[in-house]
Design brief:
Layout (H helix, E strand, L loop, with lengths): L2 E4 H6 L1 H9 L4 E5 L2 E6 L11 H7 L8 H17 L2
Length: 84
């Protein structure tokens, strides 16, 4: 089972958290008594990820227009209001 730390601990004691994870410990950060995210050691066998190569290898995506972005934002806002 993962050990828990508060989100505040992660913020204020980051170097200590990094040391724990480097020793192989997995941690779950909680905020307001709810799990928010997990901090896990990277699998050293997979090696470092070359993000630039991955980005260049990915299929190119068309950049959305400002009108499309505006419509997406309005849809999100309408959806959030309707769930309250």
């Amino acid at each position: 089972m993962d050990n828990t730390v508060t989100a505040s601990d992660v913020r204020h004691q980051f170097p200590k958290i990094v040391e724990r994870v480097q020793r192989g410990e997995s941690l779950v950060a909680i905020s307001h008594s709810r799990p928010v995210f997990r901090i896990v050691p990277l699998d050293e066998a997979s090696g470092p990820v070359d993000w630039l190569k991955r980005i260049h290898a990915a299929p190119s995506r068309r950049t959305p227009s400002l009108e499309e972005i505006n419509e997406i934002v309005h849809r999100i806002r309408r959806g959030k209001r309707s769930t309250r």
